[in-house]
Every structure is written in structure tokens, then in C-alpha cells.
């Protein structure tokens, strides 16, 4: 048995694919996450809502340790995130799409999508190109493959970013406010790609302000405020019969915008 196998918990069929246990995080003296507990089953779509500064982006960034956390434990597909040698394994299984697209502007769209599978998965150039073109077609942007990323609209760049994340064949996709930097007319094209991905059975955690997407796609909707996870419910219950006064206040406020 390898050290990685020794560190690994039972396979995801025996439990959640993501387990967050008593996680707390501070920036200096400011606590931004307080005793977070959350389990996500394989194939679930979980949407995380909350006001700015509630800790929702910090939480999903902890799942692949783009942010460090000081207390608690996160287990991804059986791998304990803080165990030695597990971080790179987890990052190969978790794709992430950010608010900013983070593409290489001097590269073509095609090369942006090919790069990580070649460097990190050891794919040949031919195999990486075939995979990239398949994914660019999937997100509806194959005709832009040979343009430089800087020539594309924001919505097109975000679709490339999704294709780039999928090129690593992740088991889990994290989205950190993927439409918030887009012009309103470009939001729909990105949400359409995310709906299609959700329909394929991908495990997804999505931080967003898109209430319609949450109602339509989510299996569960989570509400965070001041670093605490306050509600976790199916969309019909979350939006139709909110229990908490703080959640009612939040939903009333966002419904007016």
C-alpha cells in the first residue's frame, strides 16, 4: 500500500465526495469561517448564497487549499487535504472557475485549454488538442480556437475557462461567482454551459448571485452570513419557505434588484 492509499479514506461510494468538518479560518484576528460542516454527495449541485463578505468564496477556495484554514478538516474523494502529498492529488480531481478568467492572453484559446493536460496529465500534444477541441465544441466556442484569448468577449473567455478546467477531467467543479464580472447580456451564455454541465452529472459547488440558476439547477442551496453556514435546504424550501429571519431579509433584498 502506498502512502497516498494509506492516507485515503474509504472510496466516495461509502460516503460524501466532499466532507467539510468543523472548519474555521482567520485572516489575522478576523474570523472569516466559523465551525463549518458540510457534506456533498457525488453528483450533487450545491449553490452557495450570501451577502458580500459572508465567507462563501473563502469556503470553496479552502476545498483545494487556495486558502489555508486553521481548524478542522476537509476530505475530498477520500483524500485528507492536509495530509502530506494529498494536495496535488486533490487538485487534479477538482476544477475551478474564477470570477476573473485567468487565461493566458498571449496564447490561443486552444493552447490555453491544452496546456494543463500536457504538463500535469502527461498527454501528448495530439491527444491534448483532440480533448481541447472536444471541450471547446461542448462549450460552444470551437470556432474561436485559434484566436488569442485577449480577442474574446468576457462571456467567451469564461466559457474557455470552463473548458480549461474540464480538460483535466475533474470529478468536482467549483465556481466562484463566475458571472459577476460579465456584462448582463453575456451572463446567459455562461449559465447555459453550467446548466449543461450540471445535467451531465458533474458534482458542482457554485458561489453565485444568480437566483434563477439556484432555483433551477441546485439540489441544495446554502446560505452563509458572517462566516457561518446558516441554512442548507432544497431550492423549493429555501426560496418558498425560508425559516430564518436573516435569510428572509436577504431574499427580500436581492429580489428587489
UniProtKB/TrEMBL annotation:
Please give the GO cellular component terms listed in this UniProt entry.
plasma membrane
Residue intervals of the ABC transporter domain: 18-251
Classify the protein's membrane topology as the record does. Answer: Peripheral membrane protein
The lineage's top-level taxon is: Bacteria
**Subcellular localization(s) per the UniProt record:** Cell membrane
Tell me the SUPFAM superfamilies matching this sequence: P-loop containing nucleoside triphosphate hydrolases
A GO MF annotation of the entry reads:
ABC-type amino acid transporter activity
Keywords from the named record: Amino-acid transport, ATP-binding, Cell membrane, Membrane, Nucleotide-binding, Transport
* Gene3D superfamilies linked to this entry: P-loop containing nucleotide triphosphate hydrolases
Family listed: Belongs to the ABC transporter superfamily.
What name does the UniProt record give this protein?
A: Amino acid ABC transporter ATP-binding protein
- The organism's lineage? Bacteria, Thermotogati, Deinococcota, Deinococci, Deinococcales
Amino acid at each position: 500500500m502506498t502512502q497516498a492509499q494509506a492516507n485515503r479514506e474509504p472510496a466516495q461510494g461509502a460516503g460524501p465526495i466532499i466532507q467539510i468538518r468543523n472548519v474555521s479560518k482567520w485572516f489575522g484576528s478576523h474570523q472569516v469561517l466559523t465551525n463549518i460542516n458540510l457534506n456533498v454527495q457525488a453528483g450533487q449541485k450545491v449553490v452557495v448564497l450570501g451577502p458580500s463578505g459572508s465567507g462563501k468564496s473563502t469556503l470553496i477556495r479552502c476545498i483545494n487549499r487556495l486558502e489555508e484554514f486553521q481548524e478542522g478538516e476537509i476530505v475530498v474523494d477520500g483524500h485528507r487535504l492536509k495530509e502530506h502529498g494529498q494536495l496535488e492529488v486533490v487538485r487534479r480531481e477538482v476544477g475551478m472557475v474564477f470570477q476573473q478568467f485567468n487565461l493566458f492572453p498571449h496564447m490561443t484559446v486552444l493552447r490555453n485549454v491544452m496546456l494543463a493536460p500536457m504538463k500535469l496529465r502527461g498527454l501528448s500534444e495530439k491527444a491534448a488538442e483532440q480533448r481541447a477541441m472536444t471541450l471547446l465544441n461542448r462549450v460552444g466556442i470551437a470556432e474561436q480556437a485559434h484566436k488569442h484569448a485577449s480577442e474574446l468577449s468576457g462571456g467567451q473567455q469564461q466559457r474557455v475557462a470552463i473548458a480549461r478546467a474540464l480538460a483535466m477531467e475533474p470529478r468536482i467543479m467549483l465556481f466562484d461567482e463566475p458571472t459577476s464580472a460579465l456584462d448582463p447580456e453575456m451572463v446567459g451564455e455562461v449559465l447555459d454551459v453550467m446548466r449543461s454541465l450540471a445535467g451531465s452529472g458533474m458534482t458542482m459547488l457554485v458561489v453565485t448571485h444568480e437566483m434563477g440558476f439556484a432555483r433551477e439547477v441546485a439540489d441544495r442551496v446554502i446560505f452563509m452570513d458572517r462566516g457561518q453556514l446558516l441554512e442548507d435546504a432544497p431550492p423549493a424550501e429555501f426560496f418558498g419557505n425560508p425559516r430564518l429571519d436573516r435569510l428572509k431579509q436577504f431574499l427580500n433584498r436581492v429580489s428587489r434588484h
